[in-house]
Amino acid sequence: MVKSTYIVRITDGLPLSASVDDTEDETKLSHQKQQCKLISRKLTPNSEDRASIESGESTIHYLILNNVAYMCICDKSYPRKLSFSYLEEISREFDNSFGQEIHKPGLRPYAFVQFDNFMQKSKKVYQDTRATQNLDKLNSELQDVTRVMTKNIEDLLYRGDSLDKMADMSSSLRMESKKYKRAAQKINFDALIKQYVPIIGVSLIFLFLIWWMFF
């Protein structure tokens, strides 16, 4: 399930809003929330626009829109498609509601704390068992997230890996995927030619013989 949400401006790391969690979750997620803040400091406009970062029994997902990072902490078993569907929903609403104010200079931290009301309502929808089941049935209609990079928190925070490097890796993977797809299409086309050319040739010869016999 979605446990907590954090919204930050990546140009300067200013926190814009965050979900107000109950005391129990606040205690349990204190380590992951600190990691969210550390990750946000590594984000730049050149970073991969969406990624999943594994942290123990949890996964931190983030989505970047208009230089704002939307991050959520979820159970590791929670479907990634639903996590990003949730982030897309809150990012659209946040941008529509505060898009003109987000990048104003002199903005105080957590200036849009009132957005927690929308995040709590959205979180309940995505945590309700029946709603989750219904959303899961719509996987084919959700945006494909197979290209999302997955990183381990230790690699990212303690070994100094760069999120910008992840973006380069993701771009390379997409390019290789396109090359593979074109190669596969060519192989399939060549196979079709090899399969049907003899049949077409025999058919043409047969038609020519019929034409020669009767005309």
Automatic annotation (TrEMBL):
Domain Longin: start-end pairs: 6-119
Q: Where is the chain membrane-spanning? A: 196-214
Q: Which InterPro entries match?
A: Longin-like_dom_sf (IPR011012), Longin_dom (IPR010908), Sec22 (IPR044565), V_SNARE_CC (IPR042855)
The answer to whether UniProt assigns keyword Transport to this entry is yes
Intracellular or extracellular location(s)? Endoplasmic reticulum membrane; Golgi apparatus membrane
Q: Name one GO biological process term.
A: retrograde vesicle-mediated transport, Golgi to endoplasmic reticulum
Membrane topology type, per the record?
Single-pass type IV membrane protein
Q: Which UniProt keywords apply?
A: Coiled coil, Endoplasmic reticulum, ER-Golgi transport, Golgi apparatus, Membrane, Protein transport, Transmembrane, Transmembrane helix, Transport
Q: Where is the V-SNARE coiled-coil homology domain?
A: 134-194
Question: One Pfam family of this protein, by short name?
Answer: Synaptobrevin
One example GO MF annotation: SNAP receptor activity
SMART domains tied to this protein? Longin
Please give the GO cellular component terms listed in this UniProt entry: endoplasmic reticulum membrane; Golgi membrane
Q: Which family does it belong to?
A: Belongs to the synaptobrevin family.
What is this protein called in UniProt?
Protein transport protein SEC22
**Gene source species:** Nadsonia fulvescens var. elongata DSM 6958
